[in-house]
């Protein structure tokens, strides 16, 4: 779809991050579908822990503006202790309805072991609280060390599923938003 811009947020700080590899692959799927793409690597931004009593830092403002400018957003995280990464949580804490409401969001999770379902569920809940439209298709990369070697997918079925996430983000980027969710009505923090 021409004119669609997809932004992916990498919730991993590792130098050799499987999450980053997977998000870049998903962005390749979005590019193939005709979108412009951008990776927001949280390693390159200095976003302090959210303190609502202090003025927002410049890098948090950069993050928020890039998300506002996106037509669709991909959120990617490694599974840490049955959830998503703290660095992604902090970045999302700096955001609100202005960045996510009515936007299409695709979810990707990576784990060293079993299927990272809790990570995907927790991210889905966050996006519902922002009143985003979360793609039904989500991508997981379990046993990432076996699926990715030297920065490339070696598991074709996982690679196809991840690329499809990017394609679906483009396909549904301009879907008519659903009515607001109960979760978003209760999310007072997202409006401040």
Rough outline: globular
Strand percentage: 15-25%
Number of helices: 8
Number of strands: 8
Rg, alpha carbons: 16 Å
Q: Identify the CATH class.
A: Alpha Beta
Whole-Å distance between the termini?
A: 33 Å
Q: What's the average pLDDT?
A: 90
- CATH architecture annotation name: 3-Layer(aba) Sandwich
Helicity level: 25-40%
The H-level CATH homologous superfamily, spelled out, is: Flavodoxin domain
CATH topology: Rossmann fold
Instruction: List the uncertain runs.
Output: none
User: How many structural domains in the coordinates?
Assistant: 1
Report on this structure:
InterPro entries: Flavoprotein-like_sf, FMN_Rdtase-like_dom, NAD(P)H-dep_reductase. Pfam families: FMN_red. Its cofactor is [4Fe-4S] cluster. Belongs to the SsuE family. Isf subfamily. By secondary structure, this protein is α/β, with parallel strands linked by helices. Helices cover 40% and strands 18% of the residues. α1 packs across α7. The longest helix is centred in the C-terminal third of the chain and has 16 residues. The termini are far apart. The model has no long low-confidence stretch (mean pLDDT 90).
């Amino acid at each position: 779809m021409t004119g669609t811009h997809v932004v992916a947020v990498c919730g991993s700080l590792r130098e050799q991050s499987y999450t980053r590899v997977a998000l870049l692959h998903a962005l390749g799927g979005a590019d193939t579908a005709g979108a412009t793409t951008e990776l927001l690597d949280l390693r390159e931004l200095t976003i302090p822990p959210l303190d609502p009593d202090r003025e927002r830092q410049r890098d948090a403002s950069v993050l928020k503006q890039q998300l506002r400018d996106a037509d669709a957003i991909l959120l990617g995280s490694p599974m840490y202790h049955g959830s998503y990464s703290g660095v992604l949580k902090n970045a999302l804490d700096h955001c609100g309805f202005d960045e996510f409401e009515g936007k299409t969001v695709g979810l990707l999770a990576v784990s060293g072991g079993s299927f990272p379902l809790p990570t995907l569920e927790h991210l889905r809940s966050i996006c519902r609280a922002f009143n985003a439209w979360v793609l039904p298709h989500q991508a997981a990369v379990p046993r990432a060390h076996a699926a990715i070697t030297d920065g490339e997918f070696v598991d074709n079925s996982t690679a196809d599923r991840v690329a499809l996430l990017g394609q679906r983000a483009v396909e549904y980027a301009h879907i008519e938003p659903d009515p607001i969710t109960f979760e978003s009505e209760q999310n007072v923090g997202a409006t401040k």
